[in-house]
Design a protein that fits this description.
Length: 248
Amino acid sequence: MRKEDQMQRFAISWDANEIDFPQIAPPNGRRAIWRAKKLFAEIIHDVTALEGNPFTLPEIQTLLDGVTVGGRKISDAQQVLNQRDSYLRLFDLVESGGFALSVETARELQRLAARGEALEEGVFRRGKVTIGGSDYLPPTGEGDSLARSLEEQFARMSNDTGALGNPFEQGMVAFLHVARQQSFWDGNKRTGRLLMNGVLLSAGQDIITVPATKQLEFNQKMLRFYDSGDGTEMMKFLSGCQIRSKFE
């Protein structure tokens, strides 16, 4: 598919020939979810560290065990719990067969992931935003017309990813689309990664999580992606972040 066609259909472009996507394993949804749950605290730490949250992995393990952590802001603790709730809901959706790369699922997961942070939760963005460090301006407009436009673009993207075939490519396109469009007021990268991992788990594949140690590399590559719209570099990066490597 030409880059011009990709941009029209997905709001991003990429060169699949340059990307060494993870090898597709024999589908095993129970194993994939079990592995994700085994690394649950680490995954939550990865997510929150990318947001600049100061909670350490041991502190997150303590909080997930139901014990408060002294000296930390309530807002930081709530962000950790939000990611816990959003991933637990994702697991429930996949295990029940209820996950779909859909407007409804995106709204529900964003509502959980950005609870208490977004200007509006569970609705597509209705006003202008900027991205710090980037000259790129996400789609602009005001009110319901912008929200409808972003929702329609998301729905078209989710429908068109079905033709891609490779679940890793499908999931990464969903993540990068939501991130670059800034579909919601807040929590776009978190929501996009949840959707990406829902696609992978539904296909019986291990999830992708960006290690906290790669925060700087992730941010640098994302800024280049925002500016160019070319997701090739980010897809290469994400391909090296599958948790499968921790079990082999």
